[in-house]
Amino acid sequence: MGLEDVTLWLFAFCNSVRVLAYVPQIRKAGADRHGASAISCTTWSLFLMAHLSTVAYALVNRGDWGLAACFVANALGCVAIIAVTYWKRRCHAAQLPLLRPGPV
Asked: Which CATH number applies to 3-99?
């Protein structure tokens, strides 16, 4: 096995494991009762853009559907985290008037 094979294997392994790493973040955001305030939508949006640009590179420059599929999966993980965060923040904002005591 040459160096190119080793680096390809490491790349594929790490990115496959990374797809699984989105699951705990999605679960934490979904269970949060404070509008998922600890999650940065800006950061996850930047990750999403990086993954989508890698998909474009893989298809246009390399013709590599496997690489593209790997980063599509990563992009979907980012979309899921952003969507759950957005949903939790909307739900939390809708409950705020109910939680605040009104004038007496």
From this structure: 1.20.1280
